[in-house]
Amino acid sequence: MPAEWSPQSQVWMLWPERPDNWRYGAKPAQGAFAKVAAAIADHTPVTVGVSADQFENACARLDPRVRVLELSANDAWARDVGPTFVVDGHGGVRGVDWQFNAWGGLAGGLYQPWNRDDQVAEKICRIEGIDRYRSDGFVLEGGAIHVDGEGTVLTTEECLLHSNRNPQLNRAQIEAQLRLYLGAEKILWLPEGIVDDETNGHIDNMACFVAPGQIALAWTDNVDDPQHACCQRAWDYLQAQRDARGRALKVHKIVLPQPLAHTAEEADGIDIARNAWPRRAGARMAASYINFLISNGALIVPAFDDPADQIAANQLADLMPNHQVIQIPCREILLGGGNIHCITQQQPVGRA
Amino acid sequence: MPAEWSPQSQVWMLWPERPDNWRYGAKPAQGAFAKVAAAIADHTPVTVGVSADQFENACARLDPRVRVLELSANDAWARDVGPTFVVDGHGGVRGVDWQFNAWGGLAGGLYQPWNRDDQVAEKICRIEGIDRYRSDGFVLEGGAIHVDGEGTVLTTEECLLHSNRNPQLNRAQIEAQLRLYLGAEKILWLPEGIVDDETNGHIDNMACFVAPGQIALAWTDNVDDPQHACCQRAWDYLQAQRDARGRALKVHKIVLPQPLAHTAEEADGIDIARNAWPRRAGARMAASYINFLISNGALIVPAFDDPADQIAANQLADLMPNHQVIQIPCREILLGGGNIHCITQQQPVGRA
Known about the structure:
Strand content of chain A: 15-25%
Shape of chain A: globular
Largest sheet of chain A: 4 strands, mixed
Oligomer: homodimer
Largest interface: A-B, 18 and 18 residues
Distance between the termini of chain A: 16 Å
């Protein structure tokens, strides 16, 4: 699996629609998704999958450079339901089609059914005419892994060892699956992700590689915030580790925004439905600048109308000086449970 | 618009599904469509559009060489709802997205709604990333026209002058639309199509070009069949015409099968629904061998388990000696109201 800073041929997204997760019939979220798509399209071709019902609306709201096609899903998390693209030694691109259970199935998953989500990776591979590896018997979401492109995988125990993903597999067996599908050698296990992350601690909200041997880690100095101890445990773990090439890791702290919660008005704009995760006023959201996308020289980074927005942008710009940092207001995406990295899936360039 | 014998990059089809048009939940029709797709795939890449509900079933039943993607429609007539592909002087391929009203709208159309059908051409063009001309204010189906690739269009008065298509346009205005969108110069107007054709006499069931200046015409010598007079009128008309290049036309008679009608068992296997065309036992079907597809050196020709099957195959082989004739049993497609040409839409090769 190539690192996210490797050349990309396109980025996949899905169109938000379900009114029991996105307030006001998803119109505010659609606006935010459209801004993200347009920002990426300045650097990389974008394809957005959309339900038949939303086709005309999506075509009208999305930047004309975006390719829109019919591709239904149960929600809009291309990172987690799209294929993880891998490249073989000859430059051939293939897709890993992870078994998907809506972040926990019937034991803490976020909605049911998830049958359309679980078809998305296959559909994308068929559209592109690329071969596909289906991981039947091994549940994973794309947001649960990050790679350095040189044999190292970054993940969290909170997610991959959770009893609602692969209870039949132990840590060594899960590592074997990651090595097999991702062509990886070394797995780095942070204890946790961001607190109150409904994905059970996806790595892509907590930490990511910014170069081989270098990791950006979400950080707060506020010792009164339970998030602080999580960050400290991740820091301590990483200081003691080496990557697949034997390098010690350089860890860079990236500021977190102030704790953010659903407002009463925001919560009230969401359909009440038995089979979808409730969004309650006052519930803390898993806001993090780490949930950005790297795409062909650009960093597409969330903004939260928070004093830390500019600090985070500066920190990331310092870490990846050859990249342009673009910030997009993302509260409407965060309200649905994720952010820019969660709603995108990059497809690497194949054979040169 | 290139002639159908020009090189093709792919053929588009749609997957039959609606149980109020295809008997027994469309399973027999799906088998026939799959055979057509496989036969084409021996010569030309095939893409089949399918609803989300039918995705897994279609993938399982179709030849693995077929590209399956989500593309919903109200039924399965790619010829009539897909784009008519045209090529500009520099080899650029574009799609004509004809306004569609389900073969007659609320005045004799075959079902309603037809909103998904009317989106198919746009969706195909977006998938392929090709430009599109939308004919708002001009209703046409792809099966209502044939071309010789050298400036001549073949159509029928019965269809194009029908009051349920473009009542606001006279013959000259309709000719102007065809010239505009197809890059054509001369329009040839057969009086009618096949009798009892629910499309109001589509040309692609009645006559087609097999080469510039040469036309294959459905024919019966049975003077007791009302079809005979229709054939004779077409013959007489064509004898008096010249094509866009000024050539007299050589017309070749292609045998028709015996009159075929829905059996009671066939009619009984179809859902009863208010907004779909009824299929009644004893109703004559518009069976014709002319409804074949030319694709990269192959003729994919309907068979009806009729003594004329072999005669028609031989006649077509004689007319297009550089093409391989492949016959597919097509009664299950005919039961739904069309045949091989109706369920396919060829995309020409563009810039060399």
